[in-house]
Amino acid sequence: MLPSRSAPVPFYEKVKQTISDNIASGVWRPHDRIPSEAELVAQFGFSRMTINRALRELTDEGLLVRLQGVGTFGGGTERAVRTV
């Protein structure tokens, strides 16, 4: 029987996991602004497209809220912004 080889993890999944871990551990709290795409590109060393995909997927999953021209925030921010 051949040893199983797991497929390499895509870079955007690594970014998603790190962001999720930062939120879960309290490094970034709900409603906090997270670093910009440009800052995340510099931090991870991946392309902007890779960072953007990770942020889009986390937004679709409800972990982040992205507001055009404002920034990306931990989940639940949209409601807080509307009530201000």
TrEMBL record:
SMART domains listed in its UniProt record:
HTH_GNTR (SM00345)
Q: Where is the HTH gntR-type domain?
A: 9-77
Q: Which CDD domains match?
A: WHTH_GntR (cd07377)
Task: Report keywords, A-Z.
Answer: DNA-binding, Transcription, Transcription regulation
Any Pfam family the entry gives: GntR
Q: Which InterPro entries match?
A: Bact_HTH_transcr_reg, Tscrpt_reg_HTH_GntR, WH-like_DNA-bd_sf, WH_DNA-bd_sf
> Superkingdom of this entry's organism?
Bacteria
Q: Does the keyword Transcription apply?
A: yes
Name any one GO molecular function.
DNA binding
Protein's name according to its UniProt entry: Histidine utilization repressor
What organism does the UniProt record list as the source? Citrobacter koseri (Citrobacter diversus)
